[in-house]
Structure formats: structure tokens, C-alpha cells
Design brief:
13 strands; 11 helices; Rossmann fold; 281 residues; three-stranded mixed sheet; alpha/beta
């Protein structure tokens, strides 16, 4: 039995589907019973658990051969990452008590960075789960290609996509969530010892200009990227309702300045940027 958290999201859903296609028994760990029904109809066992509740998580993980875990995204964290620390503590407690044979945890490129930023939450996750008694794999994924979903509307409406990734011609590693999910499903079925890190990127590196050019081809219209001045970021994020935008801003700085990067040689997925953008459109 493979217990999957985040099964309602893009990555977790791909993990579960890949395991089902491989003939594996899957337990869908969900908070909302309604979301569990869709997976029950596909043959999954359903376990109800809140990611903040160690007791319900323990029950959800109990008896599992392997568990896939991820940290629910927190784009506007409180100072000190209070929310993430609470979730991490619950996950650690549950895995410690349930003792699955192995764990695969979704992490991120740059989780090892020493400079505080939004991705530091995943660094905290690695530090905590890395001392569990069972084998653990941290899957560090590149920038998700699906983040370009925010570029679709401005590309269609004005032909200009604002970019926080800068300079516009600087290409960075990106990966499709389907590659992340399929890789995680494969890792769950492997046998290893201790704690290991697997890093994953797509078949190529892409820049904001590459995204604009690809959208232009698909939309058959002119599209260009335009850099959002760094000095305007805080006001823009505050206007969007963010209370603590500094971690997000520092994350973007990390990609732009190059200190958010892979620590080792990453594996490569096969899904191209154009395939993802076509699906988003």
C-alpha cells in the first residue's frame, strides 16, 4: 500500500495515477471526503487526515509500504515560518509513529541555500525528516513550468507578460509537474538505505523570453516578456494582499542571482515547455 498526500494537487495526482497504472494499491490521504470520492472510484482506499494533525496522519500512514509527502504551499508565510514548522512537526511525528518502510518527500531546487527565502521552508522539512529511522528520499524539483499559467491572460490580453525572473534572457532549470509526479512514483517503488537527494529538471533550461516566444507561436500573435522593476515588487505584492512578501522576493532574487541552484547533477524529465504551455492554453 502506497499512501499519497497532496493527491488532489498536480504532483500528487500524477504520483497516484502512475502507481495505479503500475498495479499498486494506493491510499489517498485527503482532508475533504468529497475529494476522496473521485479517488475511491478509481480503486483507492481513502484516509481522512489534516496535515496539521499528527494523530490523523499517523492513522493514514499506518501499514503503508511507502509514503509520499509534501508541504502544502505557503506563499505568504508568517515571520519564522510558523505554519511550515507546525506542519513539519506533525509530519515528522506521524512518520515516526507509523514507521512506513520508506518515504519520498517533494522538496525543491535550492533547498540547501543558506540565505533565508520562501524555499527555506523546504530546507526545514529536509532537516527534520532527514533524521527519521526509515529510508527517505528528497526529490528536489526545478521551477515548475506550470507557473507560466499566470502568463496566459496577459499574453492574450496585451501581448506583454510581466516577469519577476530577470534578466529576461537568463535561462533556468524548469520541469513539468507530470515529470515530477512520475519520478516520485518511480522512487517510491525503489529500495534504498539512509537519506538521499534526487534532483530533477526538464529536458532544457528556459528563460522568460523563451516562454514569451513559445506563447507567441501557440497564440499566433505577438508576445514579449517585460521585467518588473525590483523596486516595485514589495508594493505589488502588498497590493495583492501579501503581508510578508520578503521571503518571496528573496526567492526570486535567488533564482535571478544564481544562488538558488541544484547541489548535484539532476535527472532529466522528458516533457518540453511547449507541451505544458499548450495544455495550459
Amino acid at each position: 500500500m502506497y499512501a499519497i498526500t497532496g493527491i488532489s494537487g498536480k504532483v500528487g495526482g500524477v504520483v497516484a495515477q502512475a502507481l495505479l497504472e503500475a498495479g499498486k494499491a494506493v491510499r489517498a490521504v485527503v482532508r475533504d471526503p468529497a475529494k476522496g470520492q473521485a479517488w475511491a472510484s478509481r480503486g483507492c482506499e481513502v484516509a481522512l487526515a489534516d496535515m496539521n494533525d499528527a494523530q490523523s496522519l499517523t492513522q493514514a500512514f499506518m501499514g503503508a509500504e511507502a509514503v509520499f509527502v509534501l508541504l502544502p504551499p505557503q506563499f505568504d508565510p508568517s515571520p519564522g515560518s510558523t505554519e511550515a514548522r507546525r506542519l513539519i512537526a506533525a509530519l515528522h511525528s506521524a512518520l515516526q509513529a507509523a514507521r512506513p518502510q520508506r518515504v519520498v518527500c517533494l522538496s525543491t531546487v535550492g533547498a540547501q541555500a543558506q540565505q533565508p527565502n520562501l524555499l527555506s521552508q523546504l530546507g526545514l522539512l529536509e532537516q527534520s525528516l532527514g533524521n527519521l529511522p526509515m529510508p527517505v528520499t528528497f526529490l528536489r524539483a526545478a521551477w515548475f513550468m506550470e507557473n507560466a499559467v499566470w502568463d496566459i491572460a496577459p499574453a492574450r490580453e496585451s501581448g506583454v507578460i510581466p516577469s519577476f525572473l530577470q534578466p529576461l534572457d537568463r535561462a533556468i532549470p524548469m520541469v513539468a509537474t507530470i515529470d515530477v509526479g512520475r519520478t516520485a512514483a518511480g522512487l517510491l517503488q525503489e529500495v534504498w538505505t539512509g537519506c538521499r537527494i534526487v534532483e530533477l529538471e526538464g529536458p532544457g533550461h528556459y528563460s522568460p523570453n523563451d516562454i514569451a516566444a513559445c506563447l507567441a507561436r501557440l497564440l499566433r500573435t505577438g508576445v514579449r516578456a517585460e521585467a518588473v522593476p525590483r523596486e516595485t515588487w514589495q508594493a505589488r505584492f502588498n497590493a495583492q494582499g501579501m503581508k510578508n512578501p520578503e521571503p518571496r522576493m528573496r526567492m526570486l532574487d535567488g533564482f535571478n542571482e544564481g544562488w538558488i541552484s541544484f547541489e548535484h547533477t539532476p535527472r532529466k524529465g522528458g516533457v518540453e515547455l511547449e507541451t505544458v504551455l499548450r495544455s495550459l492554453l
